[in-house]
Amino acid sequence: MEDFLNWLIAVAQDVGLKLLASILVFIVGRIIIKAVVKGLRNSKSAQKMEATVSHFLFNFINIVLYVILVVTIIGIMGVPMASVVAAIASAGVAIGLALQGALSNFAGGIMILLFHPFHVGDFIEAAGYSGTVKDIDIFYTVLHTPDNKVVTIPNGSVMGSAVTNYSINGTRRVDFVFGVAYGSDVEKVKKILLEEAAKHEMVLKDPAPFCRLSTQNASSLDFTLRVWVEKDNYWQVNFDIMEAVTNRFVAEGIEIPFNQIDVHMKQD
Questions:
Q1: Helix/strand/coil for 165
Q2: Residue 224: in which H helix or E strand, if any?
Q3: pTM for this entry
Q4: Contact criterion met (CB below 8 Å) for 200 and 162
């Protein structure tokens, strides 16, 4: 009985010392981690980073440092590291299988942060949605659509589809197609379209507006008009020229056709 008590006391002392050391290491380690992360956040290099990049980077550093701290404490407690590594590997496989979609979104977020296909404030089209980018998180990208909807798109879907960024360049081309009736004067129609384009103060002179007969449809002659504008003026110019050309066609007697079928009667 005395031997058992001596063994129990020795074990308690050993465990107690290890537990005390682990608590001290945890407290000191936590203080150090907070100081390191805070110092990195306040560094000049961090101030130059985009908010999304810095937010992800420092969260990632924080997690890695805490993982190192936990592994250190486990080692102090005397748990064999081989068992710890095996347990972490098994847990990683299980979590990976359970969170395949989340990992795909995480990888998509990393790619967005690395390659910068768009930034906060850009107007983009991705995964079947279009809108202004309001937030880029690690797992999701948030868009505000022109009709004031908020769309949250998984980053895996964003990077798995074509992304059109309408804001990356300073200018955009506005393409119009106007149909007129067969028999209309081609040169007169071209002149009207180019005059209406030249009248608009937001239409750029260089590149110059372009207009040509593009298609002979079943019921109309289709003319293509292309003008260049500053990106912020795209929709204003689009609506203004559509209205101006329609009014001008009416004033000039240019017929705007509708779908029709000609029926020829043959008599015996």
A1: strand
A2: strand 221-230
A3: 0.62
A4: no
Count of C-beta atoms within a 10 Å radius of residue 67: 11
Q: Which fold has domain 171-252?
A: Alpha-Beta Plaits (3.30.70)
Token duo for residue 132: 């202004």
- Per DSSP, the three-state class of 4 is helix
Preceding peptide of 117 cis, ω within 30°: no
Per residue in 3-59, pLDDT (tens digit) is 656 655 665 666 777 788 888 888 988 899 899 888 888 887 777 776 666 766 777
pLDDT digits (tens, 9 = 90+) for 235-260: 999 999 999 999 999 999 999 887 76
> Within 10 Å of residue 198's Cβ, how many Cβ atoms?
13
Q: 227: Cβ–Cβ under 8 A, 6 or more apart, which residues?
A: 173, 174, 176, 197, 200, 203, 204, 209, 210, 237, 241
Helices assigned H by DSSP within the chain: 2-41, 44-48, 51-76, 81-98, 100-115, 155-159, 186-199, 234-252
Sign of CA dihedral 124, 127, 130, 134: negative
Kindly report, as residue ranges, where domains of CATH 2.30.30.60 are found in the chain. Answer: 118-165
CATH topology of domain 118-165: SH3 type barrels. (2.30.30)
**2-98 has CATH 3.40.50.720 classification:** no
80 touches 27 (CB < 8 A): no
Per residue in 215-229, is it b (16+ CB within 10 Å) or e — as a string?
Answer: eeeeebbebebebbb
Find out whether 108 and 155 touch, Cβ atoms under 8 Å.
Answer: yes
What angle in degrees, to the nearest 10, is found between the helix axes of 234-252 and 186-199? 140
